[in-house]
C-alpha cells in the first residue's frame, strides 16, 4: 500500500476534490440553511473557538472513521481506498486550518506564510468573501480563480445584454 502510486494518487486527488467540496458546501449550505452556524465565522470571534468550528470537527470525524475503519477491516482494495481518502481529507483539513484559520484569521503563529505571494493572494481573495456576507469566493486555495471566473461571467452577461439591446 505505502509504495503503491495509486494509493498516493488517490490521497492527492481526494485533497484536491476537498477544495471543490468545501467550495460547494460553503456556498450552498454554510451560506444557506446552515448560516446560523456559519455566521459565527463572519462575526468577530470572542474566544478561542467559534460555533463554525463544528464543521471542521465533523469532517475530522469522517476522515478518522475512514482511516480507522480502513485499517481495522480487511477488504483489500476497498480498505486501502478508504485509508487513502481519509489521508487526503486530513491533509486538506490541516492545510485549510493552517492557511484559513491560522494565517488569514490569525489563530496560529504562521504569519511567515505572508512571505509567499501565493498565500497573500489566497488571503486577499478570502478577504473579498468576508467584506460582504453571501458573496464568493467560497473556495480557499482556488479563491482567486473563482473571482476571475465570476468576473468573466459578469462581462459575458453584460455583453450578451448589449447585443440583445442593440
Ligand atoms: Zn462564509
Ligand atoms: Zn474566513
The termini sit apart by: 62 Å
Mean pLDDT: 95
Estimate what percentage of residues fall within beta strands.
Answer: under 5%
Main β-sheet description: none
What is the N-to-C succession of helices and strands? HHHHHH
Number of domains: 1
| Cofactors and ligands | zinc ion
Number of helices: 6
Write down the overall geometry.
globular
Q: Structural class of the helices, strands and pairings?
A: mainly alpha
Helix content: over 70%
Low-confidence stretches: none
Write up what this structure looks like.
With 166 residues, this protein is mainly α. The protein has one domain. It is built from 6 helices and no strands. Helix 1 (5-30) crosses helix 4 (77-104) and helix 4 crosses helix 5 (117-131). The longest helix is centred in the middle third of the chain and has 28 residues, at 77-104. The structure holds zinc ion (ZN) (2 copies). The site of one zinc ion has 5 residues, from helix 5.
Task: Provide a concise account of the structure shown.
The chain is built from six helices and no strands. By secondary structure, the protein is an all-alpha fold. The longest helix has 28 residues, at 77-104.
Secondary structure: elements and pairs:
Elements: H1 5-30, H2 35-42, H3 54-72, H4 77-104, H5 117-131, H6 143-165
Helix pairs in contact: 1-4, 3-4, 4-5
The structure holds zinc ion (2 copies).
One zinc ion binds at residues 26, 30-31, 38, 41-42, 129.
